[in-house]
Amino acid sequence: DILVVTPDLDAAAPLIDALFGTAPKERYIPYALCGRRRSGVNLPARTLLALLALADSRCSASALFDVLQQPLVARRFGLDDAALAQVHAWLLDAGFHWALDARHLASFKLPSRPRHTLDDALQRLFLGYALPAQAGEPFAGLLGAGDAEGSRAAALGAFWHFASSLQRLHQRLQRPQSPVQWAATLFGMLDDFMQPADDELDDHREVQDAIRQLTQHMRGGGLASALPLPVLRAALQQQLDDPARGGVAGGSVSFASMSSLRNLPFAVVCAIGLNDGAFPTTQRPLEFDLMALHPRRGDRQRRSDERGLMLDLLLAARHSLYLSHTGRSVRDNSVLPPSVLVAELLELLLPAIASDPQSSASLARARQRLVIEHPLQPFAMACFEVDGDVRLRSHDRELAEALRGSLDDPADTTAEAADAAGVQASRRHHTGASADPGADDHARHSHVDSGDIDDSDGADEGLAEGEHTPLPDLLQPFFRSPLPAPDAAWRQVTLTQLVEFFRNPCRYLLRRRLGIELPREADELQDDEPFLPNAGRRAALARRLLPPLLQGADDAAALRLARAGTEMPTGAIGEMQLQRELQSLSRFAQRLGEAQREPCLPPHGVMLDLAVEGEGWSLQLALADLRPSGLLRWRYGDSRAGDYLEAWLLHLALCADPPARAAPHTRWLSADGEFGLAYCADATAQLQALLGLYRRGLCAPLHFYPRAAWQFVQQGRSAALAAWASALQPAFGEGEDPAYRLALRGVEEPLDEGFEALAQAVFGPLREHLQDARIKP
User: Fold this and answer.
1) Which of 145, 297, 376, 511 is the most buried (most CB within 10 A)?
2) pLDDT score for 683
3) Are 740 and 709 in contact (CB under 8 A)?
4) How many Cβ atoms are within 10 Å of 266's Cβ, its own excluded?
5) Are the beta carbons of 320 and 435 closer than 8 angstroms?
């Protein structure tokens, strides 16, 4: 009875499933998606086309892993979710970026070198399996990776099986083949790379039938020449997406593309997404399209075909016709025109139903009968008013109850006003028309009998607009009131906990007190080789080379070890950067070695009992790297706020309970220099004040942000604002940290007077005792 069509069914399909598939039982309406492209719906077909595309590409790391994690492929090679995650980590560790081997790399007219190829990654992974864990010496110029051992070696073997099969397939597909040879190759790919489950057998047979039909078509057309892979892949996809397959109408609401089910009669026909330029399409012909360059009489005209398609939909509607388009811009709320076909239909209908076609007022009233503006949000009050327009009426009981509750609560008037303002900010249009020109009542209320279809259109286009107009964070503060004071179990603090807290108080509050572990961005496979070493690669190289350099390794040995890894780029530029990094590491190792020649003292335990807010707190720690001259700490990297902060906390503990044979002095070595901290006479009072801040930060977000606070005490408020929200690189601003964004949601000014006071309270005493030639007093 009901047909819903859209110009882009593949884009609308997830939204349709999200709306109709999750509806409550009492509002559930059976629906079906008809006529979708089989290459996108059929899993074996999608996997087969992805394999063909991978073999015809540069075989990037992300594309290769995307194929490997397809359920049919992973099942064929015996890889479960845990094994796939392990393979992903191995590829990252082994430095794989693209190309199967050096020969594949040379086919792109690049130097034939194995580094960063799949073959090089496999060699490193097998070395990691064969050699002891953390083996320091390279073997045949390579360092092992992955450290696969025990049962994890089975996943490595399965991945090698996949890589070997892919290399053989790549070699075979590089040669043009005849139709019969292509059929054998495609059937072999289905057997070698896929293992369908019981519920995938029908789709698997559909792909096999498509391959047979394609072969029959090529042979029936007398094609005897060999075809290259790109031509075959395009022909196979066209065979799978044959529009002649179309859709099949069933006993449910049928969602289809514009061309599917075009000539079948339906009681209600709905066309959504009829925006200007979306239908008819404005696609221009390709530059090498000879038919477009030299048109002839009788050539197919796509725009004419789409006009005919619109006429077919009009004739298919037995009772009601529903047309919808986005009527307002999400950028500036300006009016957007509908498809030219909708505009032409209105130009025809308005004079036909107007009482006086010559009167503009009569035409406006006629337009109001046909065109309806829907609110942007589904919870708009206009959708639930009893005496409102029935064509806007919603059937969502949950939203109605929520609105009824908000009307009963006087405290929610501000939220209601904000919602009302948001409703007026953007609207959608739809046109309802009856197949019977004389049925005025049907013309006015044509969509009432299919109200849930009206909701589907609203969700389809409303979600797309709503993504650009979220509710302001200020309306929903995360912390509305402080948490209860911490109990006795929280009052025994280690210095490690204190350092973690002051590095990011909001993250510590969310993680330790509330148990909220914010997800971190997973390391993604990189498809391009690095041209510049980032901080992570430099740190990994330092962790690997500093121990041998401190043990006396010469420059030649260090260079051999560095070249055996995958941290630094290759080529002339990479070699130059490697030499520069080795010089920096050698200088740092020499400085650190000289500092460590002083004999080391035994570790010193510190236990301080302090009173905070009338409560008994204790601070525990053990100081290592103590020498007669004081405490020695280091980190290979430029000095930053976190280093000063950690050194200050250690130094306060050292001064509060100094050991007998160690001077109360702290020295911190960095790649760009060093700094020291002089004796602090009131160290116990300083630790007591910091523990007070720690206690405050366990109850509510503390407005202390190390980078911004350090810049504030160094250069003032403007520098702090630049560190908090970087104008040049916004993603690297301290305020972009997920913990700050969540904990401080609803805070109008994070860098308020409280921030300035905390910055001075934490870093002010540190500055008074800091000995750093790089910082002006």
Assistant:
1) 145
2) 92
3) no
4) 21
5) yes
- Running DSSP on this structure, what letter comes out for residue 471? P
pLDDT at site 431: 53
Q: What does the alpha-carbon distance between residue 662 and residue 676 come to, in Å, rounded to a whole number?
A: 15
Give 618's DSSP letter. E
Q: Classify burial at 245, counting beta carbons within 10 Å of its beta carbon; exposed 0-12, middle 13-18, buried 19 or more.
A: middle
258: which 2 tokens?
């514009």
Least confident range of 194-198, 244-248, 604-608, 737-741: 244-248
pLDDT in tens, 292-338: 778 888 776 666 777 888 888 888 889 999 999 998 888 888 888 89
- Residue type at 102 in one-letter notation: A
393-400, Cβ contacts within 8 angstroms, sequence gap of 24 or more: 393/448, 393/451, 394/455, 395/27, 395/451, 395/452, 395/455, 396/27, 396/455, 397/24, 397/26, 397/27
CA-based nearest residue to 380, from 338, 424, 344 = 424
Q: Are 677 and 481 in contact (CB under 8 A)?
A: no
Which two structure tokens, joined as six digits, stand for 755?
């921030």
| Structure token digits, residue 143 | 């360092």
Report whether 481 contacts 669 (CB < 8 A).
no
Q: 137: which residues sit within 8 A by CB, 6+ positions away?
A: none
Token duo for residue 406: 């908000």
- The total number of residues shown for the chain amounts to 777
Q: CB under 8 Å to 625, separation ≥6 — which residues? A: 600, 631, 632, 633
* CA–CA dist 771, 666 (Å, integer): 10
Q: Which helix (H) or strand (E) holds 676?
A: strand 673-677
- pTM flag (> 0.85): no
Cβ-proximal residues to 97 (8 Å cutoff; 6+ apart), any chain: 60, 61, 116, 117, 525, 526, 527, 528, 529
